[in-house]
Amino acid sequence: MNSLQPYLNSSLIEAGCDEAGRGCLSGPVVAGAVILNPDKKIAGLDDSKKLNEKDRLLLRDEITKHALDYGIGIVSNNEIDEINILNASFLAMHRAIDNFKCMEPEHLLIDGNRFNPYQSTPYTCVIKGDSIYQSIAAASIMAKTTRDAIMAKLHDDYPAYNWLKNKGYPTKKHREAIEKFGPTSAHRMTFNLLGSKNQLKLFK
Prior knowledge:
The protein is of the alpha/beta class. It has two domains: 14-151, Nucleotidyltransferase, domain 5, CATH 3.30.420; 157-199. It contains six helices and five strands; from the N terminus they run ββαβααββααα. Strands 3-2-1-4-5 form a five-stranded mixed β-sheet. The longest helix has 24 residues, at 134-157. The chain is globular. The protein starts with 13 loop residues before the first strand and ends in a 23-residue tail after the last helix.
């Protein structure tokens, strides 16, 4: 039985929005936006971080089959460096909403506590919304699975950084690889890539 709430405003066309990859050192930030069909229940929806990869992919298939509409928004690491990660996260959500194919949302449910307004569409920010609302959970799954696929492709180009496993997050081995081999074209150069060590070492 699905324990998440199906909507905040039942009388409106409501889209859930969430992003993945905000805390990573490399790769893009990716957002999902999903308008669920109230007549097509999707069992097992939950925050993507609480699901294993197999379940995320199965749920992604269910979302793409049964949602009324969905969109994906991607903001590159270079854009992140230009506008900062907070603005990049908002931009990714805007792009996801832009990519709806057939519906226009009347209300947005945003995961988190801040958002840049999208046109004149009313919105509600919900802290940990991916654990509260089905549409945000669905958006988190779309964002996470899309970003994981991008990082898997980047891993083929840069296998030393083990992005297939760490997905670009600041793990010890990821930072050790950056220190040994230097940053790649996929790294976010405005981030503290080496942790507590001197960032200027990257440019020697």
